[in-house]
Amino acid sequence: MKKPILVLALLFSFHLSAAEHEVKMLNAGPEGIMVFSPAYLNIDSGDTVHFVPTDQGHNSVSEFGPEGGVTWKGELGKPVSVTFDKEGLHAYQCEPHSIMAMVGIVQVGKATNKEDFHRFVDSKEAMFVMNKGRFKAYGEQVK
């Protein structure tokens, strides 16, 4: 009888500890045009991120993550919520504005895939027609 109660208590406490975060999709913000705000998040496993189209014409689409990590593709102008349960670095973009470096990073726990991530950032930076260096600057926040 004690084991089922302990399991339920652990599951319940895990559910209570999960946090929710909001990322706005903006035409302009403190870092320039076509940005996610915040563009870098450091969260815990089990947390949920709500991508909110504050300005229209944006979406959030996963681009890179740890093996077995969550992937998503939000619709244009629609909010999308993503629960992250795999530790590591996850990168995402706005599809219509990816060449303008409308990108972001979610770090879940430890940066277990840091080397692969930095190689990805380097290759992605070469595709940007404006806001060059933005993605690398976000990557410098990785702990």
TrEMBL record:
- Co-factor binding details: Binds 1 copper ion per subunit.
Localization in the cell: Periplasm
Q: Which residues form a coiled coil?
A: none
**Keyword terms:** Copper, Electron transport, Metal-binding, Periplasm, Signal, Transport
Ranges for the Blue (type 1) copper domain?
A: 24-108
Q: Please provide an example of a Pfam family that matches this protein in its UniProt record.
A: Copper-bind
SUPFAM superfamilies in UniProt: Cupredoxins
The residues that the entry says bind Cu cation are: 58, 94, 97, 102
Q: Which GO terms describe its cellular component?
A: periplasmic space
Q: Cofactors per UniProt?
A: Cu cation
Q: State the Gene3D superfamilies in the record.
A: Cupredoxins - blue copper proteins
User: Where is the secretion signal located?
Assistant: 1-18
Which one of the record's GO molecular function terms can you name? copper ion binding
Q: What is this protein called?
A: Pseudoazurin
